[in-house]
Every structure is written in structure tokens, then in C-alpha cells.
Amino acid sequence: MRVIGGEFRSRRLASLPGAATRPTPDRLRETLFDILQTRIAGATFADAYAGTGAVGIEALSRGAAHAWFLERGRAALEVIRRNLEALSLAPRATVLAGPVLLTLPRVTADIIFLDPPYDVEREYAAALAALEAHPPALVIAQHSIRFELPESAGKLARTRIVRQGDNALSFYAR
């Protein structure tokens, strides 16, 4: 796994062995940040269900001012911290350990990226509901193309869906 673009382009990232973590494919990350290119510079970004932290690190590489990494897995948390240290990004990052549904309300970010495990579909609705009180400007949810997310969630309305292979990105805005 590598950083696709920006300051740390082509730098390798540590990853987790096994199939427990499903990293966002390079091509899908590239598509995501091509879409976000005018919004990412200076933004605060949250990578919820962060896994290796590749999406949040990509945001930092492309100019995000700060990134939050929300993850509950101990091994994944170690990999995120190792990746941040290897790129000297720790001062621009906050790592929150614990269940995302409990840590998400503590995050103040302009853009939130949600990527829960595909086999825990109820987590999508719960995460979107957790954002209802203080919705960010933009929420992007990565999901299986076989799983349809709601058109709206509180003050957030879906504005776009991008499909690529077996994955989809649903964009929600206030």
C-alpha cells in the first residue's frame, strides 16, 4: 500500500496482515481525492474505521491541516501510529482509540470518511445518526455496491454516488 498523491506521493505504508482489515484500494482513493481536490487543502479530515490510516494520511499528504483517525483494533492503532511517525505526521494527527460510534461525536472535522466493515451494515446508519447533532460539511461513506445507503440522514442529504468495481462512495452534504 502506498500514498497516491501529494507531499508523500509513492511512500509506502505499513499494513495489517490477513483479511480482517479491508484497505481502500489505491484506485478508489485516487478517485476520492480527485473529487475532493478543491476542498482538501486546509481542511480538517476524519478517517473513521481507519484501519491502516491510508485515507487520512492521503488527506494530510494532499494538504489537509489536521486528520483524526478513529479505530478500535489494537493492531490497527499500532499501524496507524507507525505510519504517522514514519512520515512525521504525528503533530498534524489525532488518533482516537475505541468504538467509532463512541469517538465520532468528539470529532470536529470538515470532511468525515466512513468505512465500516461491509459485514456490519447497521454501523452505517448508526454512524450517520451520530453525526446528526453536529453534521460536518461533507460525509463520504465507502460501501459495497450491493448495499444501498439512505438518501438522507438528519440534515445530511446524499448528493452523489461513485461506483468503482465492488465499491461505492456515497457523498452527503448539509
Mean pLDDT across every amino acid position: 93
Query: What is the CATH domain class?
Result: Alpha Beta
Largest sheet: 8 strands, mixed
- Round the Cα radius of gyration to an integer and report it: 15 Å
Largest sheet, spatial ordering of strands: 3-2-1-4-5-8-7-6
Calculate the terminal CA-CA distance, rounded to whole Å: 33 Å
Overall domain count: 1
At the fourth level of CATH, the homologous superfamily is: Vaccinia Virus protein VP39
The chain-level structural class is alpha/beta
Order of helices and strands: HEHEHEHEHEEEE
Low-pLDDT parts are none
List the helices and strands and how they pair.
Blueprint: H1 26-36, E1 44-48, H2 54-61, E2 66-71, H3 74-86, E3 93-97, H4 100-103, E4 111-114, H5 122-130, E5 138-144, E6 152-153, E7 156-164, E8 167-173
Parallel strand pairs: 1-2, 1-4, 2-3, 4-5
Antiparallel strand pairs: 5-8, 6-7, 7-8
Provide structural commentary.
By secondary structure, the chain is α/β, with parallel strands linked by helices. The protein has one domain: 3-Layer(aba) Sandwich (Rossmann fold), CATH 3.40.50. It has five helices and eight strands; from the N terminus they run αβαβαβαβαββββ. Strands 3-2-1-4-5-8-7-6 form an eight-stranded mixed sheet. Strand 4, helix 5 and strand 5 form a beta-alpha-beta unit. The termini are far apart. The model has no long low-confidence stretch (mean pLDDT 93).
Looking at this protein, list some descriptive labels:
alpha/beta; globular; 5 helices; 8 strands; Rossmann fold; single chain; 174 residues
